[in-house]
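Propose amino acids for all 292 sites.
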């Protein structure tokens, strides 16, 4: 079925006159008549019938018109959207760790939009833990992400873009609360709240304890930074945590870790060797330059 013939059909249905419709479409009347005849023959029904000098839709023509107009509207909308995307516009599905949602992500996306304010660009924001974010990238649910690095994920490109200090957090009434700095070995006797294995932080923290050759009692395992901090503030245990601004407003003590020291890195993550729309590629390049 010829797409042009469908558009001819819609125009004729509204104008109800072959000559006027042919002029509107800038084709000859015989060409229009031939196209409508071919369409009717393919469908096996008459779409128009004469009404004096005009033509009007048959019962089946009216049914067909409703569906054709819906189909053309969907098609035209899709074409328009894809042309916008090809022009560096459209939606960016961005996933990130919640700890980056208070400052880093809002700032970098706002600056990108400001630099491209002549374009129609929109971000859809998604949060989660690193494991889920990586799966979302691989399933193409997300276009690009900010998360921790998972070494064994060979299909993902990780580009370092930000750092965050790791600290020890304890309840404000804890025996260690009078310390401003501490060696991790001096915390072994206290129960810990750990991140789950789905978290990009877990292998980093495991490595810290491997360096001192000791493993503390793990009382609880949770996924989110904020939940870890909340449990610590209510005396469920102590934890190694990213040094987040929100910690300063909670009922807990933030203690610098002297040894072993570690700085958490955050990465821009994209799937290798897969097509990215121009706007996603542009945002990726912007982030790389922005964080140099």
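Proposal:
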């Amino acid at each position: 079925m010829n797409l042009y013939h469908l558009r001819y059909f819609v125009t004729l249905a509204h104008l109800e006159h072959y000559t006027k419709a042919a002029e509107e479409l800038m084709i000859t009347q015989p060409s229009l008549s031939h196209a409508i005849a071919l369409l009717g023959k393919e469908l096996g029904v008459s779409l128009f019938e004469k009404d004096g000098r005009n033509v009007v839709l048959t019962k089946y023509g009216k049914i067909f018109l409703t569906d054709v107009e819906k189909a053309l509207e969907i098609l035209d909308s899709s074409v328009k959207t894809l042309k916008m995307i090809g022009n560096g516009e459209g939606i960016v599905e961005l996933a990130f760790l919640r700890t980056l949602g208070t400052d880093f992500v809002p700032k970098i996306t706002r600056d990108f939009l400001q630099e491209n304010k002549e374009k129609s660009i929109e971000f859809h924001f998604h949060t989660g833990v690193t494991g889920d974010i990586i799966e979302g990238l691989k399933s193409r649910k997300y276009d690009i992400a900010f998360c921790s690095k998972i070494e064994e994920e060979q299909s993902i490109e990780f580009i370092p873009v930000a750092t965050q200090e790791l600290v020890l957090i304890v309840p404000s009434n804890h025996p260690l609360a009078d310390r401003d700095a501490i060696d991790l070995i001096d915390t072994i006797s206290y129960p810990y709240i750990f991140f789950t294995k789905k978290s990009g932080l877990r292998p980093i923290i495991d490595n810290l304890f491997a360096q001192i050759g000791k493993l503390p009692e793990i009382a609880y395992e949770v996924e989110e930074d904020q939940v870890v901090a909340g449990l610590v503030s209510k005396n469920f245990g102590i934890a190694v945590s990213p040094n987040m601004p929100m910690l300063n407003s909670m009922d807990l003590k933030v203690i610098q870790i002297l040894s072993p020291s570690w700085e958490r890195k955050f990465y821009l993550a994209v799937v290798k060797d897969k097509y990215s729309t121009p706007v996603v590629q542009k945002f990726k390049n912007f982030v790389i330059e922005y964080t140099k």
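The first helix runs from residue 3 to 15. The chain is about 40% helix and 25% strand.
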